[in-house]
Design goal:
By secondary structure, the chain is α+β, with helices and mostly antiparallel strands. It has 16 helices and 19 strands. The strands form 9 sheets. Strands 5-4-9 form a 3-stranded mixed beta sheet, with no helix packed on it. Helix 3 packs antiparallel against helix 4. It is globular.
């Protein structure tokens, strides 16, 4: 290992350094670049915390992989699954051991961090994803490519439906790339602008697909498709398409639903599209007009502000009076026949009524997280109060996904499905909250100081707890419950955003 090696060919001989010398040099080059990009030591973090951040980031970027195969898809034209075209995908993954495949909305968060390290990698990854788009502008949300990948995924998640969406989180990455255009690096700027020229018509098609398939029954509203309207086993039918899986929505799904998070994604996406258009010499007016229309306080509040509850909410046919109850076994059994174990089913004790859904949590925070609120809006102040209230969303470890006083807080959705987005702290959503708090902390107005103060507290809580849990367990986790790591581990997908939390806030 330590001896130099002499090699030769027809042109002569040369010496190569010992392998351990090369490895040491590569490690040092990584550390030097990491420090230059993220500057954690200058921000006051210890050598041990800096090492933690390096390991987290290297696990994310080390999870980049190339996958090849085809998805199984159903559509409005065919209820029989058929194979999507055979294709490759270059992408990061949420967890190499548990989720070794591409997830559409996860990838937008992954690339926030990777683009800071090497925007060229991000351009390649996003090009690969956009090449999966069909003629209508739809991208399959979970990339289970080929038989080997399908063998590791439960049957219920394999089939992709071309009417079902996923949050367009690549708009987050695009915005970050726009913000990072550096005139002192003209070659890199030129490459990114060429990428935007490639991506722009695809982003348009994607945005138009949402407007063609995910609009609500009320003009200007939006509605995630894909909820199960006939289920008897789920306490609250999941909305997998939203990315927030079991987060409580209207108890009785239907076409009258209005989903505040999707509305915010569309308003935010319009603004990002307008900025891209401006950079590449296209007409930004249609998207700028849509953004301004959807960001009108009166419009947003009319669709989603609940005066009764005092927060932004979904709308639909809803009742909190639902529970899971085990069915009774048949009364007549054959002699010697044991009583069967009967499943739990949903029981509705009070009929649903049209109205806002009483479920304060991440969905309620989307107008804040995607920075749609006017800095002087009273609803911004109320939202900040809810966020910082320890009896609702605030913890010493991050902001909860669902308020403690919610009817479904920490509730199983079926007798076998443990709570997922019902109180746990998720790092990607906390990152968006911090980004919003930084934004409002820079805007003159009545909530500037409060935004700054909450942002500093939240950053410290997140970093200290994730580092503490890493020291205790050796892992970064999918979610955190009462400070303890939960779910998949190692989960160095969007939980790796702790590195940007340390660097940016």
């Amino acid at each position: 290992m330590r001896q130099e090696t002499t090699r030769s060919n027809g042109l002569g001989s040369w010496k190569t350094p010992p392998l351990d010398t090369l490895i040491h040099a590569k490690k040092q080059a990584f550390r030097d670049k990491f420090q230059k990009v993220f500057q954690l030591i200058e921000r006051g973090y210890s050598d041990e915390q800096n090492e933690f951040a390096q390991r987290v980031f290297s696990n994310l970027i080390g999870g980049l992989g190339y996958f090849y195969g085809e998805s199984l898809v159903v559509s409005q034209w065919s209820s029989t699954p058929s194979k999507y075209w055979t294709t490759g995908l270059f992408t990061a993954v949420p967890s190499r051991s548990f989720f070794p495949r591409g997830f559409l909305w996860d990838e937008g968060f992954h690339q926030l961090l990777i683009s800071r390290w090497d925007v060229g990698l991000t351009r390649e990854v996003m090009t690969s994803w956009f090449n999966l788009m069909n003629a209508d502008g739809w991208i399959p949300r979970e990339q289970i490519l080929g038989d080997e990948a399908r063998s590791r995924v439960p049957d219920e998640f394999i089939i992709q439906n071309s009417e079902y969406a996923n949050p367009p989180s690549f708009f987050l990455t695009i915005e970050s790339m726009l913000d990072s255009l550096d005139p002192d690096r003209p070659d890199e700027v030129d490459k990114t602008l060429k990428f935007f020229e490639f991506a722009y018509p695809r982003l348009q098609a994607w945005y138009n697909w949402f407007n063609a398939t995910q609009t609500g029954s009320l003009t200007g509203s939006y509605h995630w498709r894909g909820r199960n309207i006939t289920t008897e086993r789920e306490l609250n039918p999941k909305t997998l398409t939203s990315g927030l899986d079991d987060y409580p929505r209207a108890s009785h799904p239907g076409p009258e639903e209005r989903h505040v998070d999707l509305y915010c994604w569309m308003a935010y996406g319009a603004g990002v599209l307008a900025r891209v258009a401006e950079e590449i010499g296209e007409n930004p007016l249609p998207y700028r007009t849509a953004e301004l229309y959807m960001k009108q306080q009166e419009r947003l509040d009319q669709l989603h502000w609940s005066d009764k509850h005092g927060f932004y909410a979904d709308f639909g046919r809803h009742t909190d009076a639902v529970r899971l109850e085990r069915q009774q076994a048949p009364r007549q059994l054959k002699p010697g026949q044991p009583a069967p174990q009967m499943p739990k089913v949903r029981v509705v004790d009070r009929d649903p009524k049209p109205g806002f859904v009483n479920a304060l949590g991440y969905v309620s925070l989307f107008p804040l997280m995607l920075r749609l609120l006017d800095p002087s809006a009273a609803t911004l102040g109320q939202t900040l109060d809810h966020l910082r209230n320890p009896n609702l969303l605030w913890t010493d470890y991050g902001v909860r996904s669902l308020a403690r006083n919610s009817a479904l807080f920490a509730a199983h959705n079926t007798e076998h499905d443990a709570p997922y987005w019902r109180g746990a702290v998720w790092i990607n959503m906390n990152f968006l909250i911090l980004k919003a708090l930084k934004f409002y902390g820079e805007q003159p107005g009545p909530f500037q100081e409060k935004s700054q103060r909450i942002g500093q507290e939240l950053r410290d809580n997140l970093v200290q707890n994730m580092y503490r849990q890493y020291q205790k367990t050796g892992y970064v986790w999918e979610q955190y419950v009462d400070g303890e790591g939960r779910g998949s581990h190692p989960f160095t997908g969007w939980s790796s955003l702790v590195v940007l939390i340390m660097s940016d806030f």
